[in-house]
Known about the structure:
Layout (H helix, E strand, L loop, with lengths): L5 H18 L3 H10 L2 H12 L6 E6 L2 H17 L4 E6 L5 H6 L4 E4 L5 H11 L3 E5 L5 H10 L2 E7 L12 H10 L3 E4 L2 H10 L6 E3 L4 H10 L16 E7 L1 H15 L6 E6 L4 H13 L6 E2 L9 E3 L6 H4 L5 E4 L12 H5 L4 E3 L7 H8 L3 E3 L3 H13 L1 H17 L3 H14 L6
Parallel strand pairs: 1-2, 1-4, 2-3, 4-5, 5-6, 6-7, 8-9, 8-12, 9-11, 10-11, 12-13, 13-14
Amino acid sequence: MPPTSWGYRAVVRIGASLAPAIGLVDRKVGEGHRQRRGAVERLAAWAASGRDPARPLAWFHAASVGEGLQAESVLLELRRLAPALQIVYTHFSPSAEPLARRLAVDAADYLPYDLPASAGRLLQALAPDLLVFAKLDLWPELATRAAERGTAVALVAATVSPGSGRLRWPTRGLLRPGYAAVAAAGAVAEADAVRLARLGVAADRIRVTGDPRFDSVAARVAAVAPDEPLLRFGRGAPTLVAGSTWPPDEAVLLEAFSRLRARRPDARLILVPHEPTTDHLRDLDRRAAEAGLPVPARLSTAESPAPLLVVDRVGVLATLYGAGAMAYVGGGFGRAGLHSVLEPAAWGVPVAFGPRWRNSRDAGLLLEDGAAVALDGSGSLVKHWEGWLANEQDRTARGGRAKEIVRRGLGAARRSADMLAELISSRPPRR
């Protein structure tokens, strides 16, 4: 197994050394750096007291919340297939910390920087039988050292967008040893399988298993009780739920809502910012006033529905989509990247998003079946918003097609878990 290059190690060391300075201006980078400093010690301490040498161990890693939800559906299926399995879960982004705390795993923490000493110490302490990376967040130092020790390295929910920077020089060369260490990869689609091979995964180790996010989203929606209090903020009125929004999305939404209310004063907007910081919420209040809109109500203090409701907490968006007659998904008007369109689709509502959607396979599926619309500005949002309010039959039909797309995607979590279970059963225990 070829080791990582000196160039890769130099890049990681430089990045780790710059993190404290970047953290002074980027809150998430700063928090991640602080938590990573003690992660090796915390995980090694758990291994010393909680690692059962008679049981196999699977180590799952997912970068952030989206990847974590994909990993969760797979690890739950794997737990059913192998009840004796111990599971360790790591993540990179601070936004994934709440998800990590609630997962049904034996230990969870931040992933340390991908340096030789950290990777070696953790592999020695945890002695994993299986190392699973979700989506594409594979770390070459950890992967190559794990494979060298006899740990099976796998990818689940693997997807590579055509424009991914990992496919370009010099990144592809720096990462190639890590992908070459993969023993089994579950690709979301055939095109992803082809691009995984370009990254260095052996073609005969790749199979198309689908996207476990469909299973995760469907399970979350099915778990929402019909009398869930959050649903009352939208049901009973023509409500658009706009989720994971950024300022460029909000500029379009607020202008469109202001124009729409002149003709449909009964319309409502529930706005769920991706990062509901104090400054962001204050800016939303100002921009709503400039647009001639009512003062936004806050979810934390609202006792009843309001024309414009701004959600000032995280973790409730998947449920709130169920309160809407239609949905808007943020990220398509700026550079943040389009967020997940599957949650509103699972609720059976039509979806709108901005023009920068082409790196989202799911958005393409919805557009192809007429379950979503791509917008070019506030004018097109007003047109579709008003049209969906006026034509309930069309809105319901589009929502039904969105829900059917989610239904057709189910089963990927089980197929991915089957692949991982084969890896575990084909290898002798690591301890």
